[in-house]
Design a protein that fits this description.
globular; two-stranded antiparallel sheet; 35% helix
Amino acid sequence: EGLFSRLAAIVGPAGLVRDPARILPYESDGLALLAERPEAVLLPRDTAQAAAVMRLLAQARVPVVSRGAGTGLAGGA
């Protein structure tokens, strides 16, 4: 929880999504054959927030999966 609090301090409460219903669209791409629920979705508003998030997660040794629109059909999302 401490890490999530620090992330919310960077991206704001609206930029940290943990509600399973709101995370659902991020579980797979357009193919939808492979799905994995992330613990959280971060929505930084600018590059400064994105850089701060990446710095914090790298220090904490937390893996990150970046995501575009999720429309691909390769299972990469």
